[in-house]
Design brief:
- By secondary structure, this protein is α/β, with parallel strands linked by helices.
- It is about 45% helix and about 20% strand.
- The strands form 3 sheets. Strands 3-4-1-5 form a 4-stranded mixed β-sheet, with helices on one face. It has a 4-stranded mixed β-sheet with strand order 2-6-8-7. It has a 3-stranded antiparallel β-sheet with strand order 9-11-10.
- Helix 3 crosses helix 4.
- The termini are far apart.
């Protein structure tokens, strides 16, 4: 348990930020990576292990004020955080923006009681249930930086000497539900596939992918479990769009990708 003593001046200097950066999240991600339970990070662990090819990373950081990450640390960050960073940052921004809106309607003190089940405000103390023993920190007019984290396992406090800004920080973990996890852990190729399905429609996108290897209408029908007329209709639309070409080979009508179709599939 950490008890932060906030004066009136400290309350007026509370600031919210959406993240302390990708390197910071990578440092916290190490503990998540070592986990074995089925949770919102299971798919992420699988993809990171595939990227690392079972190499065990060394710690990415030695705290915020420590030396630069080692080569293995950079490898871990590049595999575990960077491929997903845009969506992670977007999710953290949404969380932070929600807190800022609450500040406008309920004030800072109201928001402090809503951050996390393990965080509670009872003037003049902000109590944080952490993995460490009891400790009291008097901020003495320094203010406080509050930030969410995707990879943190529980709330914790970083004292001012560990922060580049010279201001203490309260980091709180946010819950990752199944739908959000599915969205965040998509990779670039999966993003492209999702965008293609949104653009063309699910079945038509599947038809386009199906003729990456040339096929007849009947083969497309069997491959995708759709009727021959439906397959023929979708091929016709794709052909008129310049994505598919049709030619007769050995008595069969065969459909294949054009150069434009190849480019669209990526």
């Amino acid at each position: 348990m950490v008890a932060l003593r906030l004066s009136v001046e400290d309350l007026s200097r509370v600031r919210f930020t959406h993240t302390l950066g990708a390197a910071f999240e990578a440092h916290l991600a190490e503990a998540r990576y070592a986990g074995t339970r089925q949770d919102g990070f299971s798919e992420w662990r699988r993809k990171v292990r595939r990227r690392l090819r079972h190499r065990v990373p060394t710690p990415a950081l030695q705290g915020l004020s420590g030396p630069p990450p080692s080569a293995e640390g950079r490898l871990f960050q590049n595999a575990a955080v960077e491929p997903f960073w845009q969506r992670i940052r977007g999710h953290l921004e949404q969380e932070n923006n929600a807190r800022l809106r609450s500040v406008l309607s309920e004030g800072v003190e109201g928001v402090l009681n809503q951050l996390h089940p393990d965080i509670g405000w009872q003037a003049p103390y902000l109590r944080v249930d952490t993995a460490t023993g009891p400790e009291e920190i008097e901020l003495a007019g320094e203010g406080l930086l509050i930030t969410p984290s995707l990879f943190a396992e529980h709330p914790f406090v970083l004292e001012a000497d560990r922060m580049p800004q010279g201001v203490p920080a309260l980091v709180y973990n946010i819950f990752l539900d199944a739908d959000t996890a599915m969205d965040i852990w998509r990779e670039e190729e999966e993003d492209r596939d999702a965008s293609l399905r949104e653009l063309l429609g699910h079945t038509r996108a599947n038809v386009l992918a199906c003729v990456r290897n040339p096929k007849t209408t009947s083969e497309i029908s069997r491959c995708l479990h759709i009727s021959n007329p439906s397959a023929s209709k979708h091929v016709g639309v794709l052909r008129r769009s310049g994505l598919v070409s049709t030619a007769r080979q050995k008595g069969y009508v065969v459909h294949s990708l054009t150069q434009l179709g190849e480019a669209v599939l990526g």
